[in-house]
Amino acid sequence: MAGATATRWTDEFLDGMRDIGDPVADIAVAQVLQRGGIDEVNAAMRTLVRADQQVPQELPDELKAYLAETLELPGWADQDKIARGQQVFEKWGIYIALCLYCASLPSSYAAANGVQVLHLTARLDTDPQRRILETGQFLFDVLSDGGFGPNGKGRRTIQRVRLMHAAVRQLITTRSETTPGLWKAEWGTPLNQEDLAGTLLAFSCVVVEPLRRLGVRLSKGDIESYVHLWNVVGYLLGVREDLLAADADEATALIGAIERRQFRESPEGVALTGALLNLMDELTPGYQFDATIPGLVRHLIGADTADLLAIPKSAEFDRLSFFARAVDWFLSRVLGRRERELIGYRAMSELARPFGINLLRQIYTFQTRGKSAPFDIPDRLARRWELTP
Q: Are the CB atoms for 19 and 192 separated by under 8 Å?
């Protein structure tokens, strides 16, 4: 994979990426749409969601061809780095999952253009349980050991998500022709390349900043392996190779460019964030909302981004933050303590693990409409993370 330097993340380059979708998946879905209409596209997507077999026989031929074409890993994929990245997830998965819900998703909602697709589909508002389960399940499918093997669940999950992206892209375009104002040209192509890259980075760079804010410091090799693993995921999701950052520094530079271009307050971002906060509150009944969730989210994504999303301030966290900053200044400047020994990081780490375990336990055993939710965590991880009774 050719590494793009930070100078590539120019407005001109990223503006061009906003007009590009995913030609491989888009063509396959467009062919099905042209022949059978929206009903056939929806039927195919339902088949992929519910089917246990790898390639459902009832799928249209165009989608079978797509599945065959998009299964292989890129030639630059490093199996050792992939394995090491999966080991990072196995060791720190509780914190990574917590960062997914308390950092990655809220940060994605701060992108005022990219959030429009999420708001339009309204998945999080109309069926929040299903949405949070799907997002978490994607994480476990692609990051668990063996997910990228020849018959790995991760590869098939990524193919389905990529096809879903193409279906959403086609359906929005089609419905916009008969519903003026449904989609604005200024938002670019739905689920365009810049937005896909930004979402990918929100997932991969949890190892760089939010994890550090929880007191977890990874080695450079662990970080680079984890970023590489997500680059492989991005490639399989249809993200262009010239948008895949070669290392953590390039990833950070691209995140900065996207934040500069897109991060601003929007009613859609505020609405989705509010729905997410409410859902996490429902899933963690043993924790006082005001004293836990908003403060933790604000700690992980920073006050500026949190303000854009109207995340409530927490007096308890503010008091802890003030006290922690004062003590940490003394510990670091006077006593020369390491960052992970400082009170602020210890406090967040001590809160994060039990809260993360509680959240995952609730998701793992969540009941929806009287039936067990289809959330599958490998038994080894469930035992290691104390999720089973």
A: yes
